[in-house]
Amino acid sequence: MLELIFNTGRNIGLGIFVNGAFALQFSEVPQSQAIYAIAEGILIMFLSGLGEIKFKRS
Q1: What's the pLDDT band for 4 if we cut at 50, 70, 90?
Q2: Are the C-beta atoms of residues 13 and 42 closer than 8 Å to each other?
Q3: Could you give the CA distance from residue 22 to residue 37 in angstroms, rounded to a whole number?
Q4: Neighbouring C-beta atoms of residue 5, cutoff 10 Å
Q5: Domain span at residue 27?
C-alpha cells in the first residue's frame, strides 16, 4: 500500500515538473513562478523516491 502512495507521489511530482517546464517555455507566467513549480516537482519526486527506498529497507 505504501509503495502505491510513493508511486502516486512520484507521478504527481512529475506532472508538476512538466507543467512548470511548459509554463517556463510557452507561457506568460513570470519566470520565478515557473522555476518554483519545477523545483517543487523535483522535490516531490525526490521525497517519494527516498520514502520508497526507506520503506523497502525496513
Answers
A1: confident
A2: yes
A3: 10
A4: 13
A5: 2-57
Q: Total structural domains in the chain? A: 1
Is pLDDT of 49 > 80? yes
Residue 49: C-alpha distances to residues 2, 7, 22, 33, 39 (Å):
12, 8, 23, 24, 15
What's the grid cell of residue 23?
509554463
- DSSP assignment of 2-51 equals HHHHHHHHHHHHHHHHHHHHHHHHHS-S-HHHHHHHHHHHHHHHHHHHHH
Q: Give the CA-trace dihedral at 16, 17, 20, 25, to 10 degrees.
A: -140
The tens digit of pLDDT for each residue in 10-44 reads: 999 999 999 989 988 898 888 888 899 899 999 99
